[in-house]
Amino acid sequence: MWLLVVLLSIFIVAVAFLLFYLLRPIYRPLFLRDLYDSHVVVTGGSSGIGKELARQLLHEHGARVTILARNQQRLDECRQDLTPNDSDRLLCLSVDVGGSYADVQNAIEQACHHHGNRPVNILINNAGVFYAKTIDETTPDEFEQMVRINYLGAVYCTKACLPSMRHLGSGRIVLVSSQAGQLGVFGYTSYCATKFALKGLAESLQMELARDNIYVTVAYPPDTDTPGLIEENKTKPRETQLINETSGVLSADEVAKKIIVSARQGSFACWYGINGFLLACLTSGAQPVTSVLELTCQCLLAGLTRLIIVRLLNSFYAIARRRTM
Ligand SMILES: NC(=O)C1=CN([C@@H]2O[C@H](COP(=O)(O)OP(=O)(O)OC[C@H]3O[C@@H](n4cnc5c(N)ncnc54)[C@H](OP(=O)(O)O)[C@@H]3O)[C@@H](O)[C@H]2O)C=CC1
Ligand SMILES: CCCCCCCCCCCCCCCC(=O)[C@@H](N)CO
Protein backbone atom coordinates (compact mmCIF):
# COMPACT_ATOMS: atom_id res chain seq x y z
CA MET A 1 0.00 0.00 0.00
CA TRP A 2 2.71 2.49 1.10
CA LEU A 3 4.85 1.52 -1.85
CA LEU A 4 1.95 2.38 -4.14
CA VAL A 5 1.53 5.81 -2.53
CA VAL A 6 5.26 6.55 -2.88
CA LEU A 7 5.34 5.40 -6.51
CA LEU A 8 2.22 7.43 -7.28
CA SER A 9 3.75 10.56 -5.70
CA ILE A 10 6.94 10.13 -7.70
CA PHE A 11 4.85 9.71 -10.84
CA ILE A 12 2.81 12.85 -10.11
CA VAL A 13 5.95 14.91 -9.41
CA ALA A 14 7.58 13.62 -12.61
CA VAL A 15 4.51 14.49 -14.69
CA ALA A 16 4.34 17.94 -13.06
CA PHE A 17 7.98 18.60 -13.95
CA LEU A 18 7.44 17.38 -17.51
CA LEU A 19 4.38 19.61 -17.94
CA PHE A 20 6.24 22.54 -16.37
CA TYR A 21 9.02 22.01 -18.91
CA LEU A 22 6.82 21.38 -21.96
CA LEU A 23 4.52 24.33 -21.26
CA ARG A 24 7.42 26.80 -20.98
CA PRO A 25 6.72 28.43 -24.37
CA ILE A 26 3.16 29.13 -23.24
CA TYR A 27 3.63 30.49 -19.72
CA ARG A 28 6.96 32.28 -20.15
CA PRO A 29 5.56 35.09 -22.33
CA LEU A 30 2.91 35.65 -19.65
CA PHE A 31 5.58 36.36 -17.02
CA LEU A 32 7.74 38.33 -19.45
CA ARG A 33 4.80 40.27 -20.84
CA ASP A 34 6.27 43.60 -19.79
CA LEU A 35 9.23 43.28 -22.17
CA TYR A 36 7.39 41.63 -25.06
CA ASP A 37 7.38 44.02 -28.05
CA SER A 38 8.96 46.79 -25.99
CA HIS A 39 11.71 48.82 -27.66
CA VAL A 40 15.17 48.44 -26.13
CA VAL A 41 18.19 50.40 -27.37
CA VAL A 42 21.53 48.75 -26.60
CA THR A 43 24.62 50.84 -27.32
CA GLY A 44 27.73 48.80 -28.10
CA GLY A 45 25.44 45.87 -28.89
CA SER A 46 27.66 44.40 -31.62
CA SER A 47 30.09 42.70 -29.21
CA GLY A 48 30.51 41.21 -25.71
CA ILE A 49 28.03 42.22 -23.00
CA GLY A 50 25.96 44.36 -25.40
CA LYS A 51 25.57 41.56 -27.93
CA GLU A 52 24.51 39.15 -25.20
CA LEU A 53 21.99 41.73 -23.92
CA ALA A 54 20.56 42.05 -27.43
CA ARG A 55 20.39 38.25 -27.83
CA GLN A 56 18.55 37.70 -24.56
CA LEU A 57 16.18 40.61 -25.14
CA LEU A 58 15.29 39.36 -28.62
CA HIS A 59 15.08 35.63 -28.02
CA GLU A 60 14.18 35.23 -24.35
CA HIS A 61 12.01 38.31 -23.82
CA GLY A 62 10.54 38.98 -27.25
CA ALA A 63 11.65 42.61 -27.20
CA ARG A 64 12.38 44.79 -30.24
CA VAL A 65 16.01 45.82 -30.19
CA THR A 66 18.06 48.63 -31.70
CA ILE A 67 21.83 48.25 -31.59
CA LEU A 68 24.06 51.31 -31.93
CA ALA A 69 27.77 50.78 -32.66
CA ARG A 70 30.33 52.20 -35.09
CA ASN A 71 31.84 49.40 -37.18
CA GLN A 72 29.41 48.44 -39.98
CA GLN A 73 31.07 45.07 -40.65
CA ARG A 74 30.75 44.02 -37.00
CA LEU A 75 27.13 45.18 -37.04
CA ASP A 76 26.42 43.05 -40.13
CA GLU A 77 28.02 39.99 -38.54
CA CYS A 78 26.06 40.58 -35.36
CA ARG A 79 22.81 40.84 -37.34
CA GLN A 80 23.61 37.50 -39.02
CA ASP A 81 24.33 35.86 -35.64
CA LEU A 82 21.31 37.22 -33.80
CA THR A 83 18.64 37.06 -36.51
CA PRO A 84 19.71 34.73 -39.35
CA ASN A 85 16.18 35.11 -40.82
CA ASP A 86 16.67 38.88 -41.01
CA SER A 87 13.83 39.81 -38.65
CA ASP A 88 12.73 43.45 -38.53
CA ARG A 89 12.65 43.18 -34.72
CA LEU A 90 16.39 43.96 -34.75
CA LEU A 91 17.74 47.21 -36.14
CA CYS A 92 21.50 47.80 -36.32
CA LEU A 93 22.63 51.39 -36.85
CA SER A 94 26.16 52.66 -37.29
CA VAL A 95 26.79 55.72 -35.12
CA ASP A 96 29.54 56.97 -32.83
CA VAL A 97 27.70 57.63 -29.55
CA GLY A 98 30.50 59.89 -28.36
CA GLY A 99 30.62 61.83 -31.66
CA SER A 100 28.06 64.53 -32.32
CA TYR A 101 24.81 64.88 -30.38
CA ALA A 102 22.94 65.54 -33.64
CA ASP A 103 24.03 62.13 -35.02
CA VAL A 104 22.91 60.34 -31.87
CA GLN A 105 19.57 62.16 -31.88
CA ASN A 106 19.09 61.26 -35.52
CA ALA A 107 19.86 57.57 -34.84
CA ILE A 108 17.33 57.42 -31.98
CA GLU A 109 14.66 59.04 -34.19
CA GLN A 110 15.40 56.51 -36.94
CA ALA A 111 15.17 53.67 -34.41
CA CYS A 112 11.76 54.75 -33.10
CA HIS A 113 10.49 55.16 -36.64
CA HIS A 114 11.75 51.69 -37.64
CA HIS A 115 9.99 50.02 -34.71
CA GLY A 116 6.57 51.42 -35.64
CA ASN A 117 7.04 54.76 -33.86
CA ARG A 118 7.53 53.03 -30.52
CA PRO A 119 9.39 55.29 -28.10
CA VAL A 120 12.45 53.83 -26.37
CA ASN A 121 11.21 51.86 -23.36
CA ILE A 122 14.66 50.86 -22.12
CA LEU A 123 17.99 52.46 -22.98
CA ILE A 124 21.10 50.45 -22.09
CA ASN A 125 24.21 52.63 -22.23
CA ASN A 126 26.77 49.87 -22.64
CA ALA A 127 29.17 51.16 -25.35
CA GLY A 128 32.59 51.60 -23.87
CA VAL A 129 36.31 51.47 -24.57
CA PHE A 130 39.03 50.53 -22.13
CA TYR A 131 42.80 50.63 -22.31
CA ALA A 132 44.46 49.38 -19.14
CA LYS A 133 47.56 51.55 -18.90
CA THR A 134 49.14 53.78 -16.28
CA ILE A 135 48.78 57.56 -16.62
CA ASP A 136 52.30 57.76 -18.09
CA GLU A 137 51.48 55.22 -20.79
CA THR A 138 48.02 56.57 -21.65
CA THR A 139 48.05 59.18 -24.40
CA PRO A 140 45.97 62.39 -24.11
CA ASP A 141 43.96 61.11 -27.06
CA GLU A 142 43.10 57.88 -25.20
CA PHE A 143 42.01 59.89 -22.14
CA GLU A 144 39.76 61.99 -24.37
CA GLN A 145 38.36 58.97 -26.21
CA MET A 146 37.35 57.27 -22.97
CA VAL A 147 35.63 60.41 -21.67
CA ARG A 148 33.86 60.89 -25.02
CA ILE A 149 32.62 57.32 -25.46
CA ASN A 150 32.18 56.05 -21.89
CA TYR A 151 30.76 59.24 -20.39
CA LEU A 152 29.52 61.65 -23.09
CA GLY A 153 28.16 58.72 -25.13
CA ALA A 154 25.87 57.85 -22.20
CA VAL A 155 24.87 61.51 -21.75
CA TYR A 156 24.01 61.97 -25.45
CA CYS A 157 21.97 58.76 -25.74
CA THR A 158 20.11 59.47 -22.50
CA LYS A 159 19.33 63.05 -23.52
CA ALA A 160 18.09 61.88 -26.92
CA CYS A 161 15.77 59.20 -25.46
CA LEU A 162 14.29 61.18 -22.57
CA PRO A 163 11.66 63.29 -24.37
CA SER A 164 9.86 60.23 -25.75
CA MET A 165 10.16 58.33 -22.43
CA ARG A 166 8.68 61.33 -20.60
CA HIS A 167 5.88 61.54 -23.13
CA LEU A 168 5.15 57.84 -22.59
CA GLY A 169 5.25 58.30 -18.83
CA SER A 170 7.62 55.40 -18.14
CA GLY A 171 11.07 54.09 -18.96
CA ARG A 172 14.34 52.61 -17.81
CA ILE A 173 17.87 53.90 -18.29
CA VAL A 174 20.83 51.61 -17.62
CA LEU A 175 24.40 52.81 -17.29
CA VAL A 176 26.99 50.05 -17.57
CA SER A 177 29.78 51.09 -15.21
CA SER A 178 32.23 48.55 -13.71
CA GLN A 179 33.66 47.52 -10.33
CA ALA A 180 36.35 49.93 -11.50
CA GLY A 181 33.63 52.59 -11.12
CA GLN A 182 33.48 51.85 -7.39
CA LEU A 183 37.16 51.89 -6.45
CA GLY A 184 40.30 53.23 -8.07
CA VAL A 185 42.50 50.51 -9.58
CA PHE A 186 46.15 50.62 -10.72
CA GLY A 187 46.25 50.98 -14.51
CA TYR A 188 42.78 52.54 -14.84
CA THR A 189 43.45 56.28 -14.25
CA SER A 190 41.45 57.16 -17.35
CA TYR A 191 38.92 54.31 -17.33
CA CYS A 192 37.95 54.47 -13.61
CA ALA A 193 37.27 58.19 -13.85
CA THR A 194 34.77 57.70 -16.69
CA LYS A 195 33.05 54.84 -14.85
CA PHE A 196 32.83 56.84 -11.57
CA ALA A 197 31.30 59.67 -13.61
CA LEU A 198 28.38 57.44 -14.57
CA LYS A 199 27.33 57.11 -10.93
CA GLY A 200 27.22 60.89 -10.48
CA LEU A 201 25.22 61.14 -13.67
CA ALA A 202 22.84 58.41 -12.48
CA GLU A 203 22.22 59.95 -9.05
CA SER A 204 21.40 63.42 -10.43
CA LEU A 205 19.37 61.96 -13.27
CA GLN A 206 17.27 59.81 -10.95
CA MET A 207 16.49 62.89 -8.82
CA GLU A 208 15.47 64.87 -11.91
CA LEU A 209 13.30 61.99 -13.11
CA ALA A 210 11.60 61.44 -9.75
CA ARG A 211 8.27 62.68 -11.14
CA ASP A 212 8.47 60.80 -14.42
CA ASN A 213 8.23 57.09 -13.53
CA ILE A 214 11.63 56.55 -15.18
CA TYR A 215 14.15 54.47 -13.25
CA VAL A 216 17.92 54.52 -13.54
CA THR A 217 20.16 51.47 -12.97
CA VAL A 218 23.95 51.47 -12.69
CA ALA A 219 25.62 48.09 -13.34
CA TYR A 220 29.00 47.24 -11.81
CA PRO A 221 30.38 44.08 -13.47
CA PRO A 222 33.81 42.64 -12.62
CA ASP A 223 36.09 41.39 -15.47
CA THR A 224 33.79 39.79 -18.06
CA ASP A 225 34.78 37.35 -20.79
CA THR A 226 34.29 39.44 -23.98
CA PRO A 227 36.30 40.35 -27.11
CA GLY A 228 36.96 43.68 -25.35
CA LEU A 229 38.58 41.92 -22.38
CA ILE A 230 40.77 39.80 -24.68
CA GLU A 231 41.97 43.02 -26.32
CA GLU A 232 42.48 44.72 -22.94
CA ASN A 233 44.52 41.80 -21.63
CA LYS A 234 47.13 42.36 -24.37
CA THR A 235 48.40 45.54 -22.69
CA LYS A 236 47.06 45.14 -19.14
CA PRO A 237 49.74 45.78 -16.51
CA ARG A 238 50.40 42.75 -14.28
CA GLU A 239 49.36 44.83 -11.27
CA THR A 240 45.94 45.53 -12.76
CA GLN A 241 45.49 41.85 -13.60
CA LEU A 242 46.38 40.77 -10.04
CA ILE A 243 43.96 43.28 -8.49
CA ASN A 244 41.13 42.38 -10.90
CA GLU A 245 41.56 38.67 -10.11
CA THR A 246 40.14 39.39 -6.64
CA SER A 247 36.69 39.43 -8.23
CA GLY A 248 37.25 36.72 -10.88
CA VAL A 249 35.82 36.67 -14.41
CA LEU A 250 32.14 36.34 -15.33
CA SER A 251 30.51 35.32 -18.60
CA ALA A 252 28.74 37.97 -20.70
CA ASP A 253 25.61 35.84 -20.35
CA GLU A 254 25.53 36.15 -16.53
CA VAL A 255 26.28 39.88 -16.66
CA ALA A 256 23.56 40.58 -19.24
CA LYS A 257 20.97 38.50 -17.39
CA LYS A 258 21.24 40.51 -14.17
CA ILE A 259 21.23 43.83 -16.02
CA ILE A 260 17.87 42.92 -17.56
CA VAL A 261 16.40 41.78 -14.21
CA SER A 262 17.64 44.92 -12.41
CA ALA A 263 16.33 47.24 -15.12
CA ARG A 264 12.90 45.60 -15.02
CA GLN A 265 12.77 45.91 -11.24
CA GLY A 266 14.07 49.49 -11.36
CA SER A 267 16.92 48.68 -8.92
CA PHE A 268 19.43 51.52 -8.69
CA ALA A 269 22.50 49.30 -8.31
CA CYS A 270 23.21 46.05 -10.17
CA TRP A 271 26.13 44.10 -8.65
CA TYR A 272 27.64 40.62 -9.07
CA GLY A 273 28.79 38.05 -6.51
CA ILE A 274 29.84 38.53 -2.90
CA ASN A 275 32.55 41.11 -3.74
CA GLY A 276 30.04 43.06 -5.80
CA PHE A 277 27.55 42.96 -2.95
CA LEU A 278 30.12 44.18 -0.39
CA LEU A 279 31.38 46.90 -2.76
CA ALA A 280 27.80 48.03 -3.39
CA CYS A 281 27.23 48.30 0.39
CA LEU A 282 30.50 50.18 0.86
CA THR A 283 29.86 52.67 -1.95
CA SER A 284 26.11 53.17 -1.55
CA GLY A 285 26.79 56.76 -0.35
CA ALA A 286 23.90 59.09 -1.21
CA GLN A 287 22.33 56.89 -3.85
CA PRO A 288 18.54 56.44 -3.92
CA VAL A 289 16.98 53.52 -2.04
CA THR A 290 15.26 50.91 -4.20
CA SER A 291 15.28 47.93 -1.81
CA VAL A 292 14.66 47.82 1.92
CA LEU A 293 16.75 44.65 2.21
CA GLU A 294 19.70 46.37 0.52
CA LEU A 295 19.32 49.45 2.75
CA THR A 296 19.38 47.20 5.83
CA CYS A 297 22.59 45.49 4.63
CA GLN A 298 24.21 48.85 3.80
CA CYS A 299 23.48 50.16 7.32
CA LEU A 300 24.53 47.00 9.15
CA LEU A 301 27.69 46.35 7.09
CA ALA A 302 29.04 49.93 6.76
CA GLY A 303 31.86 49.53 9.30
CA LEU A 304 32.71 45.98 8.33
CA THR A 305 32.96 46.69 4.57
CA ARG A 306 35.23 49.67 5.28
CA LEU A 307 37.52 47.39 7.30
CA ILE A 308 37.53 44.74 4.56
CA ILE A 309 38.43 47.25 1.86
CA VAL A 310 41.22 48.77 3.97
CA ARG A 311 42.67 45.28 4.42
CA LEU A 312 42.41 44.65 0.64
CA LEU A 313 43.81 48.09 -0.22
CA ASN A 314 46.93 47.19 1.76
CA SER A 315 47.50 44.20 -0.48
CA PHE A 316 46.74 46.25 -3.63
CA TYR A 317 49.23 48.93 -2.54
CA ALA A 318 51.79 46.19 -1.87
CA ILE A 319 51.30 44.96 -5.46
CA ALA A 320 51.69 48.55 -6.75
CA ARG A 321 54.86 49.18 -4.71
CA ARG A 322 56.52 45.98 -5.95
CA ARG A 323 56.42 47.33 -9.54
CA THR A 324 59.85 47.27 -11.09
CA MET A 325 60.47 50.00 -13.74
N1 LIG B 1 34.57 43.14 -20.33
C1 LIG B 1 34.81 43.54 -19.10
O1 LIG B 1 35.69 43.01 -18.42
C2 LIG B 1 33.98 44.62 -18.50
C3 LIG B 1 33.29 45.54 -19.28
N2 LIG B 1 32.57 46.55 -18.68
C4 LIG B 1 31.89 47.55 -19.49
O2 LIG B 1 30.91 46.90 -20.28
C5 LIG B 1 30.77 47.56 -21.52
C6 LIG B 1 30.91 46.56 -22.65
O3 LIG B 1 32.15 45.91 -22.55
P1 LIG B 1 32.55 44.69 -23.50
O4 LIG B 1 31.35 43.95 -23.88
O5 LIG B 1 33.67 44.00 -22.85
O6 LIG B 1 33.11 45.51 -24.77
P2 LIG B 1 33.54 45.06 -26.24
O7 LIG B 1 34.82 45.76 -26.54
O8 LIG B 1 33.47 43.60 -26.42
O9 LIG B 1 32.38 45.77 -27.10
C7 LIG B 1 32.25 47.14 -27.06
C8 LIG B 1 31.07 47.55 -27.90
O10 LIG B 1 30.93 48.98 -27.83
C9 LIG B 1 30.90 49.50 -29.15
N3 LIG B 1 31.44 50.85 -29.16
C10 LIG B 1 32.67 51.25 -28.78
N4 LIG B 1 32.82 52.57 -28.98
C11 LIG B 1 31.65 53.02 -29.49
C12 LIG B 1 31.18 54.28 -29.91
N5 LIG B 1 31.95 55.37 -29.88
N6 LIG B 1 29.92 54.39 -30.39
C13 LIG B 1 29.13 53.30 -30.45
N7 LIG B 1 29.52 52.07 -30.07
C14 LIG B 1 30.76 51.93 -29.60
C15 LIG B 1 31.73 48.51 -29.96
O11 LIG B 1 31.46 48.56 -31.34
P3 LIG B 1 32.32 49.49 -32.35
O12 LIG B 1 33.75 49.42 -31.91
O13 LIG B 1 32.07 48.93 -33.70
O14 LIG B 1 31.75 50.86 -32.21
C16 LIG B 1 31.24 47.20 -29.36
O15 LIG B 1 30.00 46.85 -29.90
C17 LIG B 1 31.81 48.66 -21.53
O16 LIG B 1 31.20 49.88 -21.17
C18 LIG B 1 32.81 48.24 -20.47
O17 LIG B 1 33.45 49.33 -19.90
C19 LIG B 1 32.48 46.64 -17.32
C20 LIG B 1 33.13 45.76 -16.52
C21 LIG B 1 33.93 44.69 -17.04
C1 LIG C 1 34.41 45.50 0.80
C2 LIG C 1 34.53 45.17 -0.56
C3 LIG C 1 35.45 44.10 -1.06
C4 LIG C 1 35.43 44.03 -2.54
C5 LIG C 1 36.63 43.58 -3.26
C6 LIG C 1 37.01 44.47 -4.39
C7 LIG C 1 37.79 43.83 -5.47
C8 LIG C 1 38.23 44.83 -6.50
C9 LIG C 1 38.49 44.25 -7.83
C10 LIG C 1 38.45 45.30 -8.91
C11 LIG C 1 37.97 44.72 -10.18
C12 LIG C 1 37.89 45.72 -11.28
C13 LIG C 1 37.38 45.06 -12.53
C14 LIG C 1 37.28 46.00 -13.68
C15 LIG C 1 36.78 45.31 -14.90
C16 LIG C 1 36.73 46.22 -16.05
O1 LIG C 1 35.94 47.11 -16.09
C17 LIG C 1 37.72 46.01 -17.12
N1 LIG C 1 37.83 44.66 -17.52
C18 LIG C 1 37.47 46.85 -18.31
O2 LIG C 1 36.45 46.39 -19.00
Automatic annotation (TrEMBL):
Alphabetized GO MF terms: 3-dehydrosphinganine reductase activity; nucleotide binding
Listed SMART domains: PKS_KR (SM00822)
GO biological process, one term: 3-keto-sphinganine metabolic process
Chief location of this protein within or outside the cell: endoplasmic reticulum
Subcellular localization: Endoplasmic reticulum
EC number from the UniProt entry: 1.1.1.102
UniProt keyword annotation of Transcription regulation present: no
Keyword field: Endoplasmic reticulum, Lipid metabolism, Membrane, NADP, Nucleotide-binding, Oxidoreductase, Sphingolipid metabolism, Transmembrane, Transmembrane helix
Xref: Gene3D superfamilies: NAD(P)-binding Rossmann-like Domain (3.40.50.720)
Catalytic activity: sphinganine + NADP(+) = 3-oxosphinganine + NADPH + H(+)
Domain Ketoreductase span(s) in chain numbering: 38-233
Pathway this chain belongs to: Lipid metabolism; sphingolipid metabolism; Sphingolipid metabolism
InterPro entries recorded: KDSR-like, KR_dom, NAD(P)-bd_dom_sf, Sc_DH/Rdtase_CS, SDR_fam
Functional summary from the UniProt entry: Catalyzes the reduction of 3'-oxosphinganine (3-ketodihydrosphingosine/KDS) to sphinganine (dihydrosphingosine/DHS), the second step of de novo sphingolipid biosynthesis.
Name the UniProt record assigns to this protein: 3-dehydrosphinganine reductase
Organism: Didymodactylos carnosus
Source lineage: Eukaryota, Metazoa, Spiralia, Gnathifera, Rotifera
